[in-house]
Amino acid sequence: MTGIVEKLSFLYQWHALAVISIGYVLGELGHYLIGVTSKAIAIDLHFGDIACQLNNTNYHLSELPFPCRGANDSDTCLSYNINGTPYCEWNYNGLGLDYQILAGPSFIAVFTIVGVALGFAADKFNRVKMLSVCTLIFAIAIIVSGSVNEYWQLVLLRMIMAAGESGCNPLATGILSDIFSEDKRALVMSIFNWGIYGGYGIAFPVGRYIPPLDIWGTGWRITYYGAGVIALIMAFLTWFTLKEPERQSIGENATSDENAKKVTIWTVILEPRVIMLCLAASVRHCGGMCFAYNCDLYYQLYFPDYDLGWWLFAVTIVIGSIGVVVGGIVSDKFVAKMGIRSRVIILALSQIIATPLAFGSVFFKPTWAMITLGLSYFFAEMWFGILFAILVEIVPLKVRSTTVGIFLFVMNNIGGNLPILVEPVSKAIGYRESLYIFYVGAYLLSSFMFLGTVFLMEGPKKPEGQPQKELSGFDNTVFRGDDHTLPTITSLVQNGKKNSAESSRL
């Protein structure tokens, strides 16, 4: 039996990645499911905006004598008919300030604060056990969300869900970077962070097609019950099948290095390149969250005669997955030759290409909207995995999880809360136009901000009296083996396995 276990040990890395990633997908499914089920929930719980909407799928918009959206009161709305058959309904549409608060700020407020606390804890305690507990918390919150009868109950459970899910990224980032070596890091981080888009993509068919089945008379509630139960299973798998990996550190193993003791969270997060990277990520996250929260509602509002649920699922899951993998592989291949700058360059270029395609996904009618959305996703979804591969490579081990927690705190507070402005802006200039600003505009601005970050990724200076050595990257103190001993972000951590006088500067 021992021999069989040893022969299969090479599968452990990928088993760990699968368990952690699937758990993250389920957490994100619970997070984004509100965007697809909001109309059904609003009708049930009575919150948000009431508007005139098409309720007859037998007609296309071009066949209607009057568009439903043109009616401003129930009498006018219900008077619209074709041969005596009404085709509009006056009901909750799932939008409004109540929805934006439910989708964004109520979740983000807790997610960011608890995420920082868990980031600090991850640098000191068993990360696998903490991740298991976090998964258990958001799993229970998702299940209970399916039993609510009041709006405030749903808000409260969204906050509890956020508390549990907030630990996924800082905990999993540390675990996976200690399990996998540098040559696979961007790919692994891309696969894990694709969980955001995996959960978001799965939410479309789950939220659109399962509630109408009215399984056991539960309607929209069954989607939360199902997602939560599967998340419970992943919590138990995390606890019982994963083990805490050894924290990989090369530079910090040098106990005689006095400079290593000077590394603090402040010296790291106040680095200009970390600040710039965080601000660029915050703007890009705003664009992603804006579209995630409004995508399904936007297409239902402007094209109610088209069923785009499966198209959105395919674009997100299939094309988004390809983009994630390609981004990770390309980044890993280039970084070995060009260093950390190559990851940032790839990150910037992918978002620049995605920007005009994102515009097309909102500007065009359904056919071309789905085509441009798919192409946009291919390039746009490269960003998250590459971003965190960069982050863990420029941050020393002793504050790595804490830095990730703070990074996510800032990124989510800015990027996660700005989409709430879609509501007042849409009232002023239109829903589509507000997406041009907060979705497409955020992509464009973040592209140039990422490009500017490239120039802050400086290499080490040649020490006096020492021959120039080719150093194209940074020692993240999480690399395996002596072949990866490159200088750290702070230049304060030396390689304990080789006596070298080289160091880098802040």
TrEMBL record:
PROSITE patterns per record: MFS
Domain Major facilitator superfamily (MFS) profile span(s) in chain numbering: 16-464
Membrane-crossing segments per the record: 12-34, 101-122, 128-152, 191-210, 222-242, 308-330, 342-364, 370-392, 404-422, 434-456
SUPFAM superfamilies, per the entry: MFS general substrate transporter (SSF103473)
GO cellular component terms, A-Z: membrane
Main location (coarse class): membrane
Compartments where found: Membrane
Record's bilayer topology term: Multi-pass membrane protein
Keyword list, A-Z: Membrane, Transmembrane, Transmembrane helix, Transport
UniProt xrefs under Pfam families: MFS_1 (PF07690)
Gene Ontology molecular function: transmembrane transporter activity
Stored PANTHER family: LP14756P, SPINSTER
Protein family membership: Belongs to the major facilitator superfamily. Spinster (TC 2.A.1.49) family.
Designated name of the protein: Major facilitator superfamily (MFS) profile domain-containing protein
